[in-house]
Amino acid sequence: MNSYQLMIDSLQVRFLHIKSYALDYHWHAAKRTLHHSVLWYVEQGSFYLTLDEISYTCQEGQLCVLPANGEISYRAISDELRIISINFDAEISFLSDRSWEHVLNIPVIFEAGAAELQPLVGEMLDHSGVASPFLSLFMQSSLLRILYVVLQQSMADPVAASFQRMDERIHTIIHYLLAHPDQMPEVAQLADLVSLSESHLRKLFIQYTGQAPLHFIHRLKIEQAKKLLAASTKTISQISYELGVHHANYFTRLFKAKTGFTPQQYRQQFGMWLNE
């Protein structure tokens, strides 16, 4: 499994709400911090946007992809402005301390394929006022279709794009871990792999992933274990061994500490229907 596939498989998304705004040239704000991920589809008009001190011009037909915890300022530059805003929560489960948009290198202004998004956004808005117990399912599925278009267009070269903003040495270690799932390397081994001291490696890992190396390795192993538990009939001991953890009891304790489930409980709740 390459890093791109693992990122997408581990991306968790939850729709929150959608709303259309009819605005004018008075619309502006300075230094607002976003509490959720936001998509702004510009139906009409244009405006200036500053995100984390970088400036953009957003125009009709474009999609603005704004990360949670980003600091934004904006100002209308047209007399009339219509924006559809979609708020949602999203994270890459084993990189939850880092914005999924930054990890996947998603551009702030999305234009390629934007015409494909307009009917999807329009359908969501049309259904937003419908009283239905199934509305949340429709909204969630529509949001995922929008993100599919964004990711497909943005990640045309997944190998080059994934982790593009990371230090090459951290990139090398992550690919090494993915290529050797049956190993549980010591931090010293990883430091030697990229010719760094353990302390320097730790600083880089915290800077680029928000986690110390061992914490990152454990969370990566848990993500790999989830997929094996859900999609195979392999025993817990076999999965543990295949992931480089040679003591199944330790694997079970680690899995429960990270997920709240024992491996068997996770399989019972999230496992696919399998032939016996």
Automatic annotation (TrEMBL):
SUPFAM superfamilies in alphabetical order: Homeodomain-like, RmlC-like cupins
Keywords in alphabetical order: DNA-binding, Transcription, Transcription regulation
- Give the CDD domains listed for this entry: cupin_RmlC-like (cd02208)
Q: Which Pfam families does the record cross-reference, listed alphabetically?
A: AraC_binding (PF02311), HTH_18 (PF12833)
Highest taxon listed in the record's lineage: Bacteria
Sequence ranges assigned to domain HTH araC/xylS-type in this UniProt record: 171-269
Query: What PANTHER family does the entry give?
Result: ARAC-FAMILY TRANSCRIPTIONAL REGULATOR (PTHR43280), MMSAB OPERON REGULATORY PROTEIN (PTHR43280:SF30)
What protein name is recorded for this chain?
AraC family transcriptional regulator
The species is Paenibacillus agricola
Q: What is the lineage of its organism?
A: Bacteria, Bacillati, Bacillota, Bacilli, Bacillales
